[in-house]
Amino acid sequence: MFGAIGVPEIMILLLLVLILFGPKQIPELARGIGKGLNELKRATNEVKQEFKLDDFDKPSKPDF
User: Fold this and answer.
1) Helices then strands (H, E): number in the chain?
2) C-alpha–C-alpha distance, residues 47 and 33, integer Å
């Protein structure tokens, strides 16, 4: 099946990352990726919270 990533493909990618960045920069690279993902998660949660607050600000319709 096209597009499926298996173990051999992951191993090749890890080997390429090791060759391109070297063993000393990999922890720094992983730390940067982790911080970026954490910031994305925080921003996503803030947007979700804003939408929840907006729902409470709207007046509800009367049940006539």
Assistant:
1) 1, 0
2) 21
